[in-house]
Amino acid sequence: MAKKPFTPIPPMAELPPAEEIDVREILDKYLAGEIDLICVLGPTASGKTRYAVRLAREINALLEEIPDQVRDDGIEGSDRNVIADPTGNPSGRAEIISADSRQVYRGMDIGTGKDLSEYEEIPYHLMDIVDAGVKYNIFEYQRDFETVYKDIRDRGGIPILCGGSGLYIEAATCGYSLPEVQPDPQLRAELEKKTDEELVAQLASLKPLHNTTDYDTRKRLIRALEIAIYEDEHPVQRTSFLPKNTYYIGTLVTREERNARIDRRLNARIEEGMVEEIRGLIEGTHPALAPDHRPIPAEDLIYYGLEYKFVTQHVIGELSLEEMRTQLATAIHQFAKRQMTWFRGMERKGIRIHWTEV
């Protein structure tokens, strides 16, 4: 038998460079009105939930120092609302809003990795808000996000969006109208004739320059200007109260470590009772279901994908436990890769993500 020709394994995509995140600088930007939302995003098993909780605690600790600073610096107007509510009570603190397309469902806990114990004293939102079996959609999420986001801001809190569902993140932070700006060779040729100073001045006339990352290289500067010109000519329609200036933080982990974490976490979830949880949903015996709730058909759970697809197939006898474990691990590895592809695509659209190792 002739040997098959050797096919080299394609190289893995390079990871974005890691940054050190300065929490005080982020808080200062928020208090100054330069940003109005912090978003922690990353692929599954990258540690984003734990990082978001730690970030919230660090912000809360810094906020304890704010009152004296306010008196010293004379911060006035809307910025003061971040520090104290209109009744004079102590201010709100950092609160986390989930951006996970499956953690909205009641009873889908182990499979979605809610890990609610990690939050402890940090308030969280948009989890357990609809019954399992319901097909919750992106437009409902945007509506519910807007309600929660406005409430946190009105109470003087600091919202932190945390999740890995790229579509939900864009719906919340881009009004789900993020334009796909294609390269414009003619415009780029015109911009190349200008000096960096002229390009920066033109960009500043079209959008606020909150940091130098928009123009730390000439290539990035021209791309940012290309997007800003397009958006100026094609105004993006947003709903009434969505964030306009989000500070994005990405949790960075190598593919090898990410896959190893996925495998360890999958084994742990099976041990914690993930199969029993999904069997309870199918049989209608899960304690999170209302007494009059019907059993959830297997095809409805399969619709949710990943854990709920493969474990359901195991529960109804289509897959053995080992087949389920192997196929599910592979599917989650592929899903995490697609998540990273989505986030890198956001960067190509002009969104600045500050990647950090956690």
Q: Could you write a compact summary of the structure shown?
A:
The chain has 358 residues and is an alpha/beta fold.
Task: Write a structural description.
By secondary structure, this protein is of the alpha/beta class. It has three domains: 23-178 and 240-254 and 338-357, P-loop containing nucleotide triphosphate hydrolases (Rossmann fold, 3-Layer(aba) Sandwich), CATH 3.40.50; 185-233; 256-335, Helix Hairpins. It has 13 helices and eight strands. It has helices at residues 23-31, 48-63, 66-73, 138-154, 166-173, 185-192, 196-206, 218-233, 255-272, 274-283, 298-303, 306-315, 321-348; strands at residues 37-41, 94-98, 105-106, 124-125, 130-131, 158-163, 246-252, 353-357. The strands form two sheets. The chain has a six-stranded parallel beta sheet, with helices on both faces. The protein has a two-stranded parallel sheet with strand order 3-5. Helix 4 (138-154) crosses helix 5 (166-173), helix 7 (196-206) packs parallel to helix 8 and helix 10 crosses helix 12 (306-315). The longest helix is centred in the last third of the chain and has 28 residues, at 321-348. The protein is globular and about 65 Å long. The protein starts with 22 loop residues before the first helix and ends with a strand. The model is unreliable at 1-11 and 69-90 (pLDDT under 50).
